[in-house]
Predict the 3D structure of the following.
Amino acid sequence: MKTIFDYLDYRRFLADYYEEKKDNNQYLLWYMGYHLKVDEKELIRIMQGNSHLREHTLPLVYTYFMFTHEEARYFRMLFRNETPGIVSDRDRMYRKYRPPSHRPRRFIEKFWIKVSYWMNFPISPVEFGRSK
């Protein structure tokens, strides 16, 4: 079986784990649901990509799969990137470190007009693509 680091979607990881192990244990779906405190039908919906785990079940996932600290952090990152309503680490990092070219045009325009006045070199609005 692939490791958790080979996946970009935690639900795909759960589905692959289930597909690999279900031949050896016919009660695997019940067993996973029991340990993760998730109904079997809900677990199927999660593995199909139609639903998400709840955040309070993450520690149960870590213990069920016996994740190391790094694997647990990676699983949590995958969970946060996929779950709506949670600001993902990817979005947070993008907002923090995005290049200036991705900032709104109005911000850039106001910034350079202020800089030009500080330097006593006024910039006209025409230079920003606007007419007077």
